[in-house]
């Protein structure tokens, strides 16, 4: 079988090509893609890529699963779907607000960046996540099993949801695993656990917090501050901030 030449292949494509598919070509690199101003979809899964070139701004779908990527470039502002599972990623770049689908399972992610407000599907299982960011109300599917999650944010009632094999799951349910959850009960359990965590750390670091905050509090709320108030200042509002 003739070896696939990525340079020759890309040179054979017109500038206005909308889809590039180089799945399973044993590639170790991708050349510059900047001339493809109309590129909408890029498929480069099942290769040996360790990095990606600068991505065209026109891109709306990127699938780079099952490679050796350790990082991703800046993502195009109109990207709607990102599939980067089964790589060696330790972090993700800033996610564009346009993103709807995010699949980043089987990496080495320790945290997730802020999630776009219109995200519908988030698959982040088999990573090293200790917590999740605030989840958008639009989210319908969340798969975050087999991580190191010790807490969860407030959850919507998802169509599909799985957080099995996380410390937080064992705390709430023990060794019982579910395919379906009563979200009212689950959220109450999560809220109770989060309150206990908050109380624990407040008590554990109380002296340290006081030591740090005491000079700031004294300076900001010293009685002499009252002398600097004008007649137009809302005293009730100021006191509420105390």
Number of helices: 5
Question: How far apart, in Å, are the first and last alpha carbons?
Answer: 75 Å
- Average the pLDDT over all residues and give the rounded result: 85
- Helical proportion? 10-25%
Shape estimate: elongated
Q: How many domain regions?
A: 1
CATH architecture: Alpha-Beta Horseshoe
Low-confidence stretches: 229-233
- Tell me how many strands there are: 8
- Helix-and-strand structural type: alpha/beta
Q: How large, in whole angstroms, is the Cα Rg?
A: 24 Å
Beta content comes to 5-15%
InterPro entries: Leu-rich_rpt, Leu-rich_rpt_4, LRR-bact_E3_ubiq_ligases, LRR_dom_sf
Keywords: Leucine-rich repeat, Repeat
Organism: viral metagenome
Pfam family, one: LRR_4
Write the layout of secondary structure elements.
Layout: H1 6-11, E1 19-21, E2 41-43, E3 61-63, E4 81-83, E5 101-103, E6 121-123, E7 141-143, E8 160-162, H2 167-173, H3 183-204, H4 206-220, H5 235-241
Question: In words, what does this structure look like?
Answer:
- Helix content is 24%, strand content 10%.
- The protein is an alpha/beta fold.
- The chain has one domain: Alpha-Beta Horseshoe (Leucine-rich repeat, LRR (right-handed beta-alpha superhelix)), CATH 3.80.10.
- It has an eight-stranded parallel sheet with strand order 1-2-3-4-5-6-7-8, with no helix packed on it.
- The longest helix is centred in the last third of the chain and has 22 residues, at 183-204.
- It is elongated and about 65 Å long.
- The model is unreliable at 229-233 (pLDDT under 50).
């Amino acid at each position: 079988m003739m070896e696939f030449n990525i340079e020759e292949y890309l040179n054979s494509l017109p500038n206005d090509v909308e889809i590039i598919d180089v799945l399973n070509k044993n590639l170790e690199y991708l050349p510059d893609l900047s001339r493809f101003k109309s590129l909408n979809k890029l498929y480069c899964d099942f290769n040996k890529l360790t990095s990606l070139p600068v991505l065209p701004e026109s891109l709306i779908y990127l699938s780079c699963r099952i490679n050796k990527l350790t990082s991703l470039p800046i993502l195009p502002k109109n990207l709607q779907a990102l599939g980067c599972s089964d790589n060696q990623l330790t972090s993700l770049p800033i996610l564009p607000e346009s993103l709807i689908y995010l699949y980043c399972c089987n990496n080495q992610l320790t945290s997730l960046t802020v999630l776009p407000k219109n995200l519908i599907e988030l698959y982040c299982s088999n990573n090293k996540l200790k917590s999740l960011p605030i989840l958008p109300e639009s989210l319908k599917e969340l798969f975050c099993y087999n991580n190191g999650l010790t807490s969860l944010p407030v959850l919507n009632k998802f169509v599909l949801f799985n957080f099995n094999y996380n410390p937080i799951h064992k705390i709430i349910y023990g060794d019982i695993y579910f395919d379906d959850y009563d979200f009212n009960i689950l959220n109450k359990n999560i809220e109770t656990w989060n309150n206990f965590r908050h109380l624990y750390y407040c008590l554990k670091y109380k002296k340290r917090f006081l030591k740090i905050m005491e000079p700031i509090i004294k300076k900001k709320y010293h009685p002499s501050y009252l002398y600097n108030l004008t007649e137009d200042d809302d005293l009730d509002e100021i006191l509420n901030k105390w």
